[in-house]
Amino acid sequence: MMETVLMPKLGLTMSSGILTTWCKKEGEPVKKGEVICKVETDKITSDVESPCDGHISRILVHEEEEKEVLAPICIIEKER
Q1: What's the CATH number for 2-78?
Q2: Which of 21, 40, 61, 76 would be 45's cystine partner, CB 3.0–4.6 Å?
Q3: Which of the 8 DSSP states describes residue 52?
Q4: Strand partners, 39
Q5: What is the pLDDT of residue 11?
Q6: Which of 60, 34, 61, 63 is nearest to 48 (CA)?
């Protein structure tokens, strides 16, 4: 089963964010709550955590790329 990770909405006025750093690469295992990337807005930089145990099967957004809030940024294949 797959889980799509979305660009988080970090504030009421946030419309987009810049994915500054991937902490994990495609194929690497992740645990629920583990930081997988960092997102920057005009006000803050925040960690994005994995919503589940599994591995990153596909990264959809490159580092330094700006995406709208709730746009998919990666896909995690859940552990069974």
Answers
A1: 2.40.50.100
A2: 40
A3: S
A4: 19, 46
A5: 86
A6: 34
